[in-house]
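Structure tokens please, single chain.
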Amino acid sequence: MCDDDALEVIRQAERIVWAAGWHVQEQGVLQQLAGTRGLARARLEPRSDVIQLVTYDGEHIGHVRREGPPGPEEQWVAVLRHQARLVGTYGSAAAAAAALAQARGKTTRKTG
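Here you go.
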């Protein structure tokens, strides 16, 4: 096996490990959101708000992701679950989450 082939095998293994880690994190967050009512979101990584999973009545509907640095000009994208389809870009995580709910035909309501 040449060095290039060995490096590609290592890169592929790293991608598999990364994807498995993402899945484990995602499942833990979704368990936390399972009993929620209405629109809810939670950080995928506890120390960072950059990616947040979004549920509606406990059903995973997608995620929102901050593009660029935080601040008054920050932008959030909304991505539907299983489709990896970008719903749009919004000025806040809450607005992006509401767009996901609307794209799934859910009526957003405030929760207690």
